[in-house]
Amino acid sequence: MIDRNRRNLIAGGLAAAAVWPGMGRARAARFKAYPFSLGVASGCPLPEGVILWTRLTFPEPPPPADPFAPLEVIQRAPVDVIWDVAEDEHFTRPVRSGTVRAVQEFGHSVHVPVAGLRPGRWYFYRFRAGDAVSPVGRTRTAPAQETMADRLRFAFASCQQYEQGYYAAYQHMADADLDLVVHLGDYIYERSWGGNLVRHHGSGWPARLDEYRARHALYRSDPNLQATHARFPWLVIWDDHEVINNYGDDNAPDAPAGERFLEQRRAAYQAWYEHMPVPPHGGGDFSEFRIYGQHGFGRLLGITLLDVRQYRTPAMVGGQGAAQADANSMLGAEQERWLEETLPGARARWNVIAQPTLLSERDLEQGEGRRYSLDGWDGYRASRRHLLDSIEAARLENPLIIGGDLHAYFAADVKRDFAQPKSETVATEFVTGAISSNAPGQKSLDVALAENPHLKLASREHGYATMTLTPDGGQCDFVTIEDRKDPASPASTTYSFALTSGQPGVNRI
Ligand SMILES: [Fe+2]
């Protein structure tokens, strides 16, 4: 029996046996194929720490010559992974290192909380396992809590359907001068649609853990996406396509409702966790997985991440109108309460609320009458009211709303009462265009601009956005690529907006 195990281990991904399940320590392995093919990442920066991420991959084991061979042994072998953090990219000034065990249960992903670093500094990191060394990543800690940084700049991005375009936008982002990247969701897509695809998923809608894992791994195989992960720390939230289109809580229009869907959602959440630079999972089965939270960058910047999918009242089907929109909850009672309690403690000069989509109202009906997308905040008016009330009650300084999802760029004056164009502007909102997903027609954007005076820009380019903040002001730039079907498309800053502390509202330069 042992012999057969050993034979199959040698025939499979690991040339030397790493470990027998349940027996002893993992040993150094020689890999048949490079195990760090998904690259490295970092995220959730603190003044004295950061999360480091990688996930080891193994080639599919060859078909067994012996039908009774327990091939799963190969896949189950844990691997001890050494991580190194240094002040320089050649690791001549090492500062921290350690070992973490990558286990099959979490797809051999690792999430390392590194502590003991210095605030507001660049660091370099890598992983080693057996005879393999990962690419080198670079990351940056947050400024110290009491420090007012001279300047911080982050990029934000969303909607990267793999088949509809290349990630040229990420090639430019990787070269940009940034402290951080914020991803606002639709990191993967569960489905294919549209024509003129440039590459293919090669599989259908995922439902099981192995299928969601494979989809994430496919997206993450893109070298430009990997490069941007390796270059900056990220903050990440999800939208719907990380699970399935337009889902909310335990309900999705295109999936069986109830327990079967919750099983699918658990699988999707786990695969997301396994591929994101977020803190180690604390146990449990991913029935609930908290991603909302607040991230501080000294006295200059605070970023609040929201989850608008996991706890929402499932969206109305068929548009029953305003009555339900007034009752539905976008964030769920617990997250709303958390927000109410947390925002008053946010004492940064600039306070970013990061959520997946457009917060401001958007009437889609040309001329008389009103029509709304009920999957967005317009289907959850009471929740929007509550969020804006919480921002006001907390006396949040310079609130900035950022979002994505619409596959078009938007800039908006967030009004206390959208029905009254003269009502006070209480925040500034910027929505980034898609990295690669198909954009809506120009007509619908023209209608949105004509019907909603608080919307100051709606534009269907692709790319990302950057936010540059200083103690007194700043700038939001929409960085667009010429052609998402061109893997080497040039990029340029097409729209810029000035920010002045104490003066909310869109101010195009
Ligand atoms: Fe999207």
Automatic annotation (TrEMBL):
Q: Which organism is it from?
A: Nitratireductor aquimarinus
Limits of the Phospholipase D N-terminal domain:
38-141
Known Gene3D superfamilies for this protein?
Answer: PhoD-like phosphatase (3.60.21.70), Purple acid phosphatase-like, N-terminal (2.60.40.380)
| Superkingdom of origin organism | Bacteria
Q: Where is the PhoD-like phosphatase metallophosphatase domain?
A: 154-477
- What is the protein's name according to its record? Alkaline phosphatase D family protein
Classification via PANTHER family: ALKALINE PHOSPHATASE FAMILY PROTEIN (AFU_ORTHOLOGUE AFUA_5G03860) (PTHR43606:SF2), PHOSPHATASE, PUTATIVE (AFU_ORTHOLOGUE AFUA_6G08710)-RELATED (PTHR43606)
